[in-house]
Design goal:
Blueprint: H1 3-30, E1 46-49, E2 70-73
Antiparallel strand pairs: 1-2
Length: about 80
Protein backbone atom coordinates (compact mmCIF):
# COMPACT_ATOMS: atom_id res chain seq x y z
CA UNK A 1 0.00 0.00 0.00
CA UNK A 2 1.21 3.44 -0.69
CA UNK A 3 1.42 6.20 1.90
CA UNK A 4 -1.78 7.96 0.72
CA UNK A 5 -3.92 4.84 1.27
CA UNK A 6 -2.39 4.27 4.71
CA UNK A 7 -3.00 7.90 5.72
CA UNK A 8 -6.58 7.74 4.40
CA UNK A 9 -7.28 4.52 6.31
CA UNK A 10 -5.76 5.98 9.48
CA UNK A 11 -7.84 9.15 9.23
CA UNK A 12 -11.03 7.16 8.54
CA UNK A 13 -10.48 4.83 11.50
CA UNK A 14 -9.71 7.79 13.79
CA UNK A 15 -12.87 9.55 12.62
CA UNK A 16 -14.92 6.39 13.25
CA UNK A 17 -13.45 6.07 16.76
CA UNK A 18 -14.19 9.70 17.59
CA UNK A 19 -17.79 9.31 16.34
CA UNK A 20 -18.30 6.20 18.48
CA UNK A 21 -16.96 7.94 21.58
CA UNK A 22 -19.09 11.04 20.95
CA UNK A 23 -22.22 8.93 20.38
CA UNK A 24 -21.68 6.95 23.58
CA UNK A 25 -21.10 10.11 25.60
CA UNK A 26 -24.27 11.70 24.20
CA UNK A 27 -26.29 8.55 24.98
CA UNK A 28 -24.92 8.41 28.53
CA UNK A 29 -25.72 12.04 29.37
CA UNK A 30 -29.12 12.18 27.65
CA UNK A 31 -30.56 9.07 29.36
CA UNK A 32 -33.41 9.64 31.82
CA UNK A 33 -35.40 7.38 34.14
CA UNK A 34 -38.79 7.83 35.77
CA UNK A 35 -39.82 6.22 39.04
CA UNK A 36 -43.37 5.42 40.14
CA UNK A 37 -42.70 4.09 43.63
CA UNK A 38 -45.34 4.20 46.33
CA UNK A 39 -44.96 3.67 50.06
CA UNK A 40 -47.69 2.40 52.35
CA UNK A 41 -47.89 2.37 56.11
CA UNK A 42 -49.71 -0.38 57.93
CA UNK A 43 -49.29 -3.88 59.24
CA UNK A 44 -48.97 -7.23 57.52
CA UNK A 45 -50.00 -9.93 59.99
CA UNK A 46 -50.00 -13.34 58.30
CA UNK A 47 -51.66 -16.32 59.95
CA UNK A 48 -51.57 -19.91 58.70
CA UNK A 49 -54.26 -22.51 59.31
CA UNK A 50 -53.40 -25.30 60.22
CA UNK A 51 -50.36 -24.24 62.20
CA UNK A 52 -48.54 -27.59 61.80
CA UNK A 53 -48.35 -28.58 58.16
CA UNK A 54 -46.44 -31.86 58.29
CA UNK A 55 -46.41 -34.50 61.00
CA UNK A 56 -42.94 -36.07 60.94
CA UNK A 57 -43.85 -39.22 62.93
CA UNK A 58 -43.22 -42.51 61.09
CA UNK A 59 -41.60 -40.79 58.07
CA UNK A 60 -38.54 -42.20 56.36
CA UNK A 61 -36.27 -40.84 53.60
CA UNK A 62 -38.07 -40.79 50.27
CA UNK A 63 -41.57 -40.28 51.71
CA UNK A 64 -43.53 -37.27 50.51
CA UNK A 65 -46.67 -35.46 51.65
CA UNK A 66 -49.01 -32.98 50.01
CA UNK A 67 -50.80 -30.63 52.38
CA UNK A 68 -53.11 -27.67 51.85
CA UNK A 69 -53.09 -24.62 54.08
CA UNK A 70 -54.91 -21.32 54.27
CA UNK A 71 -52.97 -18.07 54.64
CA UNK A 72 -54.89 -15.16 56.19
CA UNK A 73 -53.87 -11.54 56.58
CA UNK A 74 -55.11 -10.01 59.82
CA UNK A 75 -53.30 -6.72 59.18
CA UNK A 76 -54.25 -3.51 57.41
CA UNK A 77 -52.16 -3.85 54.22
CA UNK A 78 -53.53 -5.52 51.11
CA UNK A 79 -51.53 -8.74 50.74
CA UNK A 80 -51.94 -8.88 46.94
CA UNK A 81 -50.04 -5.58 46.57
CA UNK A 82 -47.07 -6.54 48.75
CA UNK A 83 -44.04 -7.51 46.66
Amino acid sequence: MNIKKQMGLGIMSAALGIMLIAGGTFAFFSDSETSNNTFAAGTLDLEMEPTALIDLDNMKPGDSMIRDFELRNNGTLDMSKVT
